[in-house]
Write a structure and sequence with these properties.
With about 375 residues, this protein is mainly alpha-helical. The chain has one domain: Glycosyltransferase (Alpha/alpha barrel), CATH 1.50.10. The protein contains 13 helices and eight strands. The structure holds beta-D-glucopyranose. The site of beta-D-glucopyranose has 10 residues, from helix 2.
């Protein structure tokens, strides 16, 4: 399946669809990676929401809907935690991090018993955004998720300003710009696309505006978005705020500066690192981040640049078409690679999120993807 011009992209797209839909649980949950020791049996709101968006974009409507239904049931199942968090925040005594909602649930929607870096807010915003996007794209009635969206919006309104772990499950002491961006995008789209209504929708839109203003005020340096408020570092996740989340206008100077900073500081030969100080598995490049950068470039009409990134991501597939979480080569911190292999085994392969981002970028590029 490897042609003289590189990977057979249509084949890898079919393979990606098949991998995601065949591994989806009957109840709608997407396992992050079926075989990787530390992820087995768990579904993340972050990964899952982007996976659902990827398959939604290529027409797997039922798969994405089933995932959103699963999220809605999980949120409903944990409504008690949400109500407690909202009440505690209103009373001025926010719940401790350990009592907030986790980043991941077992595929049957329970908390699971393994220790994890659990308090993360981004996935709840990303879920609202992805459900709104899916409903808009396929003209579905968002009302089926309204009860869960109400709870999720209330949870985020009460807690968005808190520090928490980021996309990479690190630095719980910081307020992360990607996390804020996911929350703002989710609140805004929940209001605009009718996942919530009335007073709640007004409050959601207002909070989205406040969060965006905070990002612009304290989450930028040297013309680019930063890893966390007050930092001047960049992070590979930040391009998501340009596309697909659409929070930072693609034609803005901030979008241009963020893409340039990610390219200059985090991109080697089309592969994108998470951040300069990364040591996870030696700090390799992540195909899913190349796809996020590609989506941001495509949103700025740089379709050639986006296609090069898609090709790099596709080139990380194994011979049987499995995409990894990250690849070896040009490691930032090679000395740490063996530590992680000894601890968890070789990097997660397949990672469903990687497959989804490849699909999402290929769908964005349409015919240009093959050119
Ligand atoms: C990454 C997370 C991801 C999780 C499951 C972790 O290593 O840091 O972003 O959600 O794996 O794929």
């Amino acid at each position: 399946m490897i042609t003289s011009r590189g990977v057979d992209l249509p084949w890898l797209e079919r393979r990606s669809r098949e991998i995601i839909t065949s591994l989806q649980e009957a109840n709608g949950a997407y396992p992050a990676s079926p075989t990787f020791s530390a992820y087995r049996g768990y579904c993340w709101f972050r990964d899952g929401s982007f996976i659902a968006d990827g398959v939604s974009a290529v027409g797997e409507v039922a798969s994405a809907t089933a995932f959103h239904d699963w999220c809605a049931r999980v949120v409903g199942h944990h409504a008690g935690t949400i109500r407690a968090a909202v009440a505690a925040a209103e009373a001025g005594h926010p719940l401790p991090d350990a009592e907030m909602l986790p980043a991941r649930f077992t595929t049957d929607g329970e908390l699971g018993t393994d220790d994890w870096w659990d308090f993360q807010l981004d996935g709840y915003g990303t879920w609202l955004w992805a459900a709104a996007e899916h409903a808009r794209r396929h003209r579905l009635d968002p009302g089926r998720w309204q009860a869960a969206a109400d709870l999720t919006v209330d949870y985020l309104l009460s807690s968005w300003a808190r520090p928490c772990f980021d996309w990479w499950e690190e630095h719980s002491e910081q307020v992360h710009v990607s996390t804020l961006g996911c929350v703002a995008a989710g609140l805004r789209r929940a209001a605009i696309d009718g996942l919530v209504d009335g007073e709640r929708a007004l409050r959601a839109e207002q909070a989205a505006g406040e969060i965006t203003a905070l990002i612009e005020r304290e989450g930028t340096a040297d013309g680019h978005l930063t890893k966390w408020l007050g930092s001047d570092a960049v992070d590979g996740s930040l391009t998501a705020l340009i596309a697909p989340l659409g929070l930072i206008p693609a034609d803005s100077d901030l979008a241009r500066g963020t893409i340039a900073a990610v390219e200059d500081q985090l991109c080697v030969e089309g592969g994108v690192y998470r951040f300069r100080a990364d040591t996870f598995f030696g700090g390799g490049r992540w195909p899913l981040l190349s796809c996020f950068l590609g989506l941001a470039k495509a949103a700025r009409s740089d379709r050639g640049g986006a296609r090069d990134l898609l090709r790099w991501a596709a080139g990380t597939a194994t011979d049987d078409g499995l995409l990894p979480e990250q690849v070896d080569g040009h490691l930032l911190a090679p000395g740490y690679r063996q530590y992680w292999i000894d601890r968890w085994g070789t990097p997660a392969t397949p990672l469903l999120w990687s497959h989804a981002m490849l699909l999402r970028l290929a769908a964005e590029l349409g015919e240009d993807a093959q050119a």
